[in-house]
Amino acid sequence: MPVKVRIPTPLRKLTNEAELVEVAVGTIGSAIGELQAKYPGIKERLVDDSGGVRRFVNVYVNEEDIRFLENLDTKLKDGDEVSIIPAIAGG
Amino acid sequence: MWRYRELLPVAGEPTVGRQVGFTPLVKADRLAKRLGIRELWIKNDAVNYPTLSFKDRVVSVALSRSKELGFKTVACASTGNLANSVAAQAASAGLEAYVFIPADLEQGKVLNSLVYGANVIGIKGHYDEVNRLCAEIAGKYGWAFVNVNMRPYYAEGSKSMGYEIAEQLGWRAPQHTVIPMASGSLLTKIHKSYQEFAKLGLISESRWRIHGAQATGCSPISVAQKAGLDFFKPVKPNTIAKSLAIGTPADGFYSLRVMKETGGHADDVTDDEIREGIKLLAECEGIFAETAGGVTVGVAKKLIAAGKIPAGDSAVLCITGNGLKTLDAVVGHCGETREIKPSLREFEALLDSDFKLAARS
Q1: B116 beta partners
Q2: How far apart are CA A25 and CA B320, in angstroms?
Q3: What is the model's pLDDT at position B360?
Q4: Residue B257: predicted pLDDT
């Protein structure tokens, strides 16, 4: 069973409006690489020039923020669910 | 607050919450003395209309704009006060409301949403998880989430608190403003309100210092400020100041920038210091603030003691919510009622022992 990635509304133009896409097991970093290969342009929306996740993008693995895990090195195993959420909300 | 309509993002006349705002700015001489500062003012949004917190301001703008845009259902992710205001103002505007809150909120804040007939959804998790879920729901349903898809309008509503402070001081910006930080949005918007007034020529000051207050149990922004960083590390909140319990503050980055640009500081206080701050404000000024108010008073005390707010200066403390909503936090910490029979003899005995105690001390 592959890893599911939930795509937020603002990025769905890049995924042909797909809300849920699949990537192979690996890490968050490899998943972003795979997304970029399938949906060119998505990587620069998620990662800044220094290679880290952008300040206004939150990434979760099974509802846990990857900043509490191992950031881009966070492991992804079969059946995991990744959520990408723009950090524009709250208060 | 709608006297400043031209500076708020609605197209026509406001239709929701026309009576919100213009809360008292109280000269707090007794508290000033206790904190050791020359002049102190309390901007008291604990008595805002209709739901007793500064959130009435932002919701008034967000719902007026939502109606202009044709939304029928409004919603929010909230630590409590926002949910209360969305529930109340949606009811008065005839809008359907869904409010999402952490399931473990204070009873007062839960009831204050339910009573208006809103759909109150308790999420088993902390605010950051509520927020994440709401971002996902907002992407799926055509609702006006006041602090997700309507957030740019909502956030501007906070400026009205700063406009009022400046007007009530006699059209001047205070030297120091101490503001509680959850997402950090209020802090950045109060700064923006002074900037706009300066630009419009309504005030002549070009310098003011903006200080931020957090609870030690959820202090990502103040920890970063004290370390001199321009970014923060998210935390898992654990504090009685539930209204400020946002571990991943959306405007944390901007708050740090405002404090840096204005020469302001941040600090944080423990749960005990929060209760002490609530009592200090109540005993000195007769104002009962919620936990966030205890945070603001406690942090102001620390900043003054450390000389970061000089003792010879003047400061405004922003009190954003009402103590009646967070009774759980202070129950058992404010002393106890003394019970007697309806007998003059018993009352005089009680008074007599008080006098003896007073004489001894």
Answers
A1: none
A2: 47
A3: 81
A4: 98
Residue B263 has pLDDT above 70, yes or no: yes
Instruction: Give the one of A67, A83, A87 whose C-beta lies nearest to B250's C-beta.
Output: A87
Q: Which residues of A touch B246 (CB under 8 A)?
A: 90-91
Q: Do B250 and A90 touch (CB under 8 A)?
A: yes
Q: Where are chain B's structural domains?
A: 2-52+158-330, 55-154
Chain B residues closer than 8 Å to A83 by CB: 132, 136
Exposed, middle or buried: residue A36 (CB in 10 Å: 0-12, 13-18, 19+)? middle
A62–chain B nearest CA distance, Å: 11
CA distances, B208 to each of A7, B47, B204, B241 (Å): 42, 26, 11, 27
**Tokens matching residue A54:** 């952008």
Segment B320-345 shows an average pLDDT of 95
Q: What is the pLDDT of residue B22?
A: 98
- For B55-154, CATH number out of 3.40.50.2300, 3.40.50.1100, 3.30.465.10, 3.30.930.10 equals 3.40.50.1100
Length of chain B: 361
Assess: ipTM above 0.90.
no
Query: Which chain B residues touch A63 with a CB distance below 8 Å?
Result: 129, 132
As its CATH architecture, domain B2-52+158-330 has 3-Layer(aba) Sandwich (3.40)
Chain A residue with minimum CA distance to B180: A91
Q: What is the 3-state secondary structure (H, E, C) of A1-44?
A: CCEEEECCHHHCCCCCCCCEEEECCEEHHHHHHHHHHHCCCHHH
**Per-residue pLDDT reduced to its tens digit, B159-201:** 999 999 999 999 999 999 999 999 999 999 999 999 999 999 9
Q: Write down the pTM of the prediction.
A: 0.92
CA–CA distance, A73 with B63 (Å, rounded to integer): 42
Fold held by A3-86: Ubiquitin-like (UB roll) (3.10.20)
Q: What is the pLDDT of residue A89?
A: 64
Which residues of chain A have a CB within 8 Å of the CB of B321?
none
| Interval B32-90: pLDDT, tens | 999 999 999 999 999 999 999 999 999 999 999 999 999 999 999 999 999 999 999 99
The helix or strand, by DSSP H or E, that contains position A57, with its residue range, turns out to be: strand A57-61
Distance from CA of B32 to the nearest CA of A (A): 30
The edge-to-edge listing of strands for the beta sheet with B144-145 is B119-123, B96-102, B73-77, B144-145
